[in-house]
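I had to read the description of the data format several times before I understood it. The format is easy to grasp once an entry is in front of the reader. For illustration, here is how one protein appears when written out as sequence plus structure tokens:
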Amino acid sequence: MREIHTRFGRDNVGYIWIILEPIILALAVTLLRAGSFHHSDYGMDAVPFCITGYSSFIMFRSVVLRGEGALDSNRSLLYHRVVTIADMLIARALLEGVVTMFVFFLLLGGASLLDLGTLPQRPLLFFEGVALLLWFSFAISLLVCAGCEVSSTVSRLIHPAVYILMPLSGAFYLLSWVPEPYRTWMTWVPIVHMFELIREGQFQCYDSPYIDVRYAVGWCMALTLIGFSFLTAIRRRLHME
């Protein structure tokens, strides 16, 4: 609740903006992309394909970029020893995850009412993919938070890096559409496996032979451990100052 109040306050639309912002972004991209969608022969409707892709990428982008200013906006909380830097980042990640899922089901529910799509047809697979993506995003946010505290160069690089990753992430394509040898190269990108899993959960007709959950979990675990070790070092440095 403190994070919501800090970011949106009570002025103008206040807390409502936390919902309106991703809705506007997701709708705009869906309208632009749906018109150029030519894969209906796969049994996938354009609107839910675009909504699942961009809404999920909004969550990834938001969680990662929120790691940049986590310390600056909450540094005073570190006066309380029970509060850790990880607590700040966990709060931000959970907030973005809950909001993104609310927006996703709101948009997809509207699409279902308009007969433009359906809700996830295999919800367990869908939520597994979303959970992995949220974990991956959180792990990177740990590194971003620590890196931004050490060097301002990280702050300048993280924004373009996230947007460069967008066309590589799998948010707007399936691996089965990518020709070899590029498909094999793309399987080395861990976030692609998460988007493939989300698409499997959304569409009953799609079963991806390229998903490696253990590979994705391995990346998440490794990045999380490295991130926590960096935050521990940063916390000691803050105490010394």
Summary: The radius of gyration is 19 Å. The mean pLDDT is 83. The chain is about 70% helix and 0% strand. The chain has one domain: 2-240.
